[in-house]
Design a protein that fits this description.
The chain is of the alpha/beta class and 344 residues long. The chain contains 12 helices and 11 strands. The protein starts with a helix and ends with a helix. One of its GO terms (biological process) is transmembrane transport.
Length: 344
């Protein structure tokens, strides 16, 4: 082969490789993806998850098999399975299990396209897990029993004689326990224990967040501590004007307005990384985020998506320092305190 021909061949190959690099992940047609099946370990709300998976399959042709369980159980299952895990993605109710999996070196970095879809301050600094939706701790109250102007400016201010038997809480709730873990981290164990003792002394224990909301709605009790989506879903169903309760936000960066996030990550052991990246990009896209926020009444993390039925995300004033709870993220210390105080 002549020198000119060799140069032309080398140039052609180089151009071809450069073109592939510029394109990034290849986008197959739905027909080309028919034989692919993603396995997702899912600890999130089933209705919204199923709708998201269905829309993704219709758009890409990639099938999705979802295996449900609690987020912590699924994360520990992945640790046990190690490199042989069949899961491609884990989708969790909170970010703590994802932080644990990252620390064990089991996660893959998300694509730049997925990272570009979200508010990065809520994502893993290394891009190994992404937030999907957020929810806020709130106070729900019955305005026929309690005036909004009488509600305090801090969650801790409920621990006073004037509020005795006027508020309900759920110590077995995962969100309650995560909030308690944040208290331990931010305020110390002694203050967190005093908080629990105050709740036990002045509040009423309920079995579930829906039970609390129903009790406030019926006027059985004036105030309850829940996550926003319980009330927001009911308001969407019946109309906010038809409810007997309202939401109250402290608006003071108080622990009572704590945000927590559902999140997702690709496993390093995934056999379908390209398809998994596509799913992550879809779930953080405008289309995917709209599906999840509309059905779950949780806040989207894509800044271009809104939910007109929720208080604007930009108006929330949560406390700082609660994204990564560090050594308290597994909830063990919170459970110890609950047991010591007699609430578990």
């Amino acid at each position: 082969m002549g020198g000119l021909a060799i140069l032309l061949l080398v140039f052609s190959v180089a151009c071809s490789n450069g073109s592939k690099e510029a394109e990034g992940t290849k986008t197959n047609t739905p027909a080309e993806n028919n034989n692919q099946t993603l396995i997702i370990y899912n600890g999130q709300h089933k209705e919204a998850s199923k709708a998201l998976e269905k829309a993704f399959t219709e758009k890409t042709g990639i099938k999705v098999e979802s295996r449900e369980g609690s987020s912590n159980e699924l994360a520990h299952q992945i640790v046990e399975e190690g490199g042989k895990s069949p899961a491609d993605i884990i989708y969790t109710e909170e970010t703590t299990p994802l932080i644990m999996l990252k620390e064990k070196g089991l996660l893959e970095k998300a694509s730049d396209a997925a990272l570009a879809n979200i508010q990065k301050q809520y994502a893993d600094p290394d891009g190994q897990w992404l937030p999907v939706v957020a929810r806020s701790r709130v106070v729900v109250y019955n305005p026929s029993m309690v005036k909004e102007s009488d509600l305090p400016k801090s969650l801790y201010d409920f621990l006073k004689p004037e509020w005795k038997n006027k508020f309900a809480f759920v110590p077995t709730s995962g969100a309650f326990q995560q909030q308690l873990s944040a208290m331990i981290k931010l305020e110390g164990r002694d203050k967190a224990k005093a908080y629990l003792e105050g709740l036990k002394k002045y509040g009423k224990v309920y079995k579930g967040n829906k039970d609390v909301l129903n009790a406030v709605e019926k006027g059985e009790i004036g105030i309850g501590f829940i996550n926003n989506y319980y009330w927001d879903k009911l308001a969407k169903e019946k109309g906010a004007g038809n409810l007997h309760s309202k939401l109250y936000f402290f608006g003071t960066n108080d622990i009572g307005d704590m945000l927590s996030f559902s999140g997702a990550a690709i496993l390093k052991s995934s056999q379908h990384k390209e398809a998994a990246q596509k799913f992550m990009e879809f779930m953080t896209s405008k289309e995917g985020q709209q599906i999840v926020t509309d059905l779950s009444a949780q806040y989207p993390v894509n800044p271009n998506v809104t939910n007109k039925n929720l208080k604007p995300f930009s108006e929330l004033k949560p406390p700082a320092g609660t994204m990564d709870l560090g050594e308290y993220g597994d909830g063990k210390e919170a459970n110890k305190l609950l047991e010591e105080v007699g609430l578990l």
